[in-house]
Write a structure and sequence with these properties.
This protein is 24% helix and 26% strand. The chain has 536 residues and is of the alpha+beta class. Strands 2, 5, 7, 8, 9, 10, 11, 15 and 24 form a nine-stranded antiparallel sheet that branches. Strands 1, 3, 4, 6, 12, 13, 14 and 25 form an eight-stranded antiparallel sheet that branches. Helix 6 runs antiparallel to helix 7. The N and C termini lie far apart (110 Å). 25% of the residues are buried.
Length: 536
């Protein structure tokens, strides 16, 4: 009887355990709105843009060194467009929403984007195969790098409740794009308290508040006042803090005509100077090319070389007395500056109530109706994988642990082995330096100087021999900033006239890599032939 009771209890325990596990599975499924692993070919599920400009070929390809498949950018210098519509629009206003995906820049990223666009419901008659840059989105999120641009975009396109127009709001000071060729996972977490968190590889790199003017540019909530566009500066308004002293008189002995330099009459020609020798002579070893045509190319002249006789002498050619600084030189006289008694300060127009002002408790998020990739990149080898939209941060964390982390650890170990195998270890050393410098560039108080720091880092990446010099330059920049913060005098604040909020839907700001890539492509033309030089 006792054995039967124990068996019944065990059976009841397993039933309870199974029920709990099943409920957790259902909860996980409920929290996962969309997941795309690209384990199977994307044909039929994802629609490639058929617009004329989008010639880039997408491929279903394995990630280098893995059996895991992804969506591959296969050609350089192309526009790419592909989109997948979701079964039901995803409501971003209800609770937490997590957007997550992986990219691997297998050939690096010099100029191009690797971001996603989360499209809002499109207008009547829109077709997925017509997806392009003008297809309106709700959120744009992901890496972008070209020229001075190096950031993980997060852009919210928000509808102005007064004008009805859509405006792009960019997250300020976004994190930089990892500089290696490893798999990385990007996560954006939208919270019901108006917060947003940006994670790279599960580590928080940036957080902000949608309604804070400190976190988004332009702010979602416009300023209550704006400069009056009708206000004009009075004609007698004097902005000069200093003026020339009207009572100052130029000294009688001040000669404005005296030259800065005069001939040094005390100078003497050095002994051994070769007056009759030219500084350059015809190259005695040069000969006229056999295919030189005097009618087409002109009369052939031998190239010049330095006269070897001048190397041993103080100098060659006509000797002239050198110039020296004129002790009587004073330059143009100017009256001393004094405080301006009529100074009124820097004029600015008066503030008036902003007619476009509105209050907002929460962003009016547009639902996500589709996920698209619309990029113009100069690099191939960009691999996208494991797209996720979920309502639970733990679900996103679980996917990172299962899908991204094993690949990343294998790639990291391989990278370490390659660095260790390097003949002098220099490549590994430089890689570590670059990684540290990119992290330094993300320090908040350096944000105003971030573009300059990134420019220095990227220059060092293309010219490894100047790594130490760049490291020193960045340290100097940081020390200079700290010195200014600690000891710098307060300067008069620069007055900037505020502009009214521009409520206009625009795609200009979304990725400067596209604009720069287009310029690079236009510049990549064959130079016109040059006239032949007269040397061999």
């Amino acid at each position: 009887m006792g054995e039967a009771k124990r068996t019944s209890l065990r059976f009841a325990f397993f039933i309870l355990l199974a029920a709990v596990s099943f409920q957790q599975l259902l909860a996980s499924d409920d929290s996962t709105i969309l997941y795309e692993s690209f384990d199977e070919p994307f044909d039929g599920r994802w629609i490639v843009s058929e617009k004329e400009d989008y010639k880039g070929v997408w491929k279903h390809s394995k990630s280098e060194g893995h059996d895991d498949y992804g969506l591959l950018v296969s050609e350089k210098a192309k526009k790419y467009g592909i989109v997948k519509e979701v079964d039901e629009p995803v409501d971003l206003k209800d609770g937490t929403t997590v957007l997550q995906f992986e990219t691997r820049l297998q050939n690096g990223l010099e100029c191009g984007g690797a971001y996603l666009k989360y499209l809002r419901p499109q207008g009547a008659g829109w077709k997925a195969n017509e997806f392009d840059n003008d297809s309106p989105y709700s959120i744009m999120f992901g890496p972008d790098k070209c020229g001075t641009t190096n950031k993980v975009h997060f852009i919210l396109k928000h509808k102005n409740p007064k004008s009805g127009e859509y405006v792009e709001h960019h997250l300020k000071y976004p994190p930089s794009v990892p500089s290696d060729k490893l798999s990385h996972v990007y996560t954006a977490i939208l919270k019901p308290n108006n917060g947003v968190r940006i994670l790279i590889d599960g580590e928080e790199k940036k957080k902000g508040n949608f309604l804070s003017a400190d976190d988004f540019e332009p702010p979602l909530v416009p300023s209550k006042t704006i400069p009056d566009p009708e206000d004009k500066k009075p004609e007698d308004w004097d902005e000069r803090a200093k003026i020339p002293d009207p009572e100052a008189v130029k000294p009688e002995d001040w000669d404005e005509e005296a030259p800065m330099e005069i001939v040094d009459d005390e100078a003497e020609k050095p002994e051994g100077w070769l007056d009759d020798e030219p500084e350059e002579i015809d190259d005695p070893e040069a000969s006229k090319p056999e295919d030189w045509d005097d009618e087409e190319d002109g009369e052939w002249e031998a190239p010049k070389i330095d006269n070897p006789k001048c190397e041993a002498a103080p100098g060659c050619g006509e000797w002239k007395k050198p110039m020296k600084r004129n002790p009587a030189y004073k330059g143009k006289w100017h009256a001393e500056l004094i405080d301006n008694p009529n100074y009124k300060g820097i004029w600015k127009p008066r503030d008036i109530p902003n007619p476009d002002y509105f209050e907002l408790d929460k962003p009016d998020f547009e639902p996500i109706a589709a996920i698209g990739i619309e990029i113009w990149t100069m690099q191939d080898g960009i691999l996208f994988d494991n797209f996720l939209i979920a309502k639970d941060e733990k679900v996103a964390e679980s996917y990172r642990e299962k899908t991204w982390k094993p690949k990343f650890e294998v790639e990291k170990e391989k990278q370490k082995a390659e660095e260790a195998a390097s003949s002098d270890g220099l490549a590994g050393y430089q890689k570590k330096v670059f990684d540290i410098l990119y992290k330094v560039a993300d320090i908040p108080f350096l944000n105003p100087y971030k573009p300059k720091i990134l420019e220095l880092i990227e220059k060092a990446e293309t010219q490894p021999n100047i790594t130490i010099g760049v490291l020193v330059s960045v340290v100097v920049v940081i020390l200079s900033i700290l010195f200014k913060l600690l000891f710098g005098r307060k300067k008069q604040a620069k007055v900037e006239q505020k502009k009214p909020e521009v409520a206009a839907e625009s795609s200009d700001k979304q990725g400067s890599s596209e604009e720069t890539a287009e310029e690079n492509e236009k510049e990549d033309t064959t130079a016109p032939p040059r006239r032949r030089r007269r040397d061999n």
